[in-house]
Write a structure and sequence with these properties.
Elements: H1 3-9, H2 16-24, H3 30-36, H4 38-47, H5 54-65, H6 74-85
Amino acid sequence: MTACHSELLQLKNLGMASVNILRAIGINTHADLKRMGAVEAYRRIKARDINVSKVMLYALQGALLDVHWNDLAPDLKAQLVLEAELPDTGGYNQATA
């Protein structure tokens, strides 16, 4: 196990499977996850056709806040889902690619 794996595994909600998914989208450290944010990380995971549920989105946010994903406030969960489902306004739009 690398130091990066170990660092991510120390975060709440993240197990080896989640860490491997994060590494697949370029997140190797807590700082990487913090920089990208839970919503963008979730979008990138979904864009790679990796089958994850909304619990992954909650888990990522919980990891950033150092709380169990189930303890996130319902309104925060709803806001995360809303943001994750908004059309991507970045430079790359899959719908037009």
